Amino acid sequence: VQLQASGGGLVQAGGSLRLSCAASGRTFSRYSMGWFRQAPGKEREFVAAIRWSGGSTYYADSVKGRFTISRDNAKNTVFLQMNSLKLEDTAVYSCAAGNTIVSSVYYARSYGYWGQGTLVTVSS
Asked: How far is CA 58 from the centre of its chain?
């Protein structure tokens, strides 16, 4: 599976962005998909994940209620809708795919495939 993330950019605090992650490969629908982010000088952290069926979603507490992850298996794409953006959301966002169990969706090591990151910059 190859992943290509897009949709990052510069946005004012309180604004919205929608990230997309396009996947190649026929087995996309079998994988859980996750979004992670890494801010300058900080470690990579979990943002959101969605199980292969799209029926279960998981969020970091810091983004719960503001971000929504979704997927379109027909289009091999996963989305991250980010609303009410804050300065602390500034980071490089990366998408990932993997065969995860429910308890492991939060951990980067559970994902075997990664796309390049897309930069999100939130300004005041």
From this structure: 11
To the nearest 10°, the Cα dihedral for 65, 114, 38, 92?
A: -80
Neighbours of 117 (CB within 10 A): 17
**pLDDT class for 27, splitting at 50, 70, 90?**
confident
d(CA 56, CA 13): 29
The per-residue DSSP string of 36-80 comes to EEE-TTS--EEEEEE-TTSS-EEE-TTTTTTEEEEEEGGGTEEEE
CB atoms within 10 A of CB 72: 13
**What does the pLDDT read at residue 53?**
79
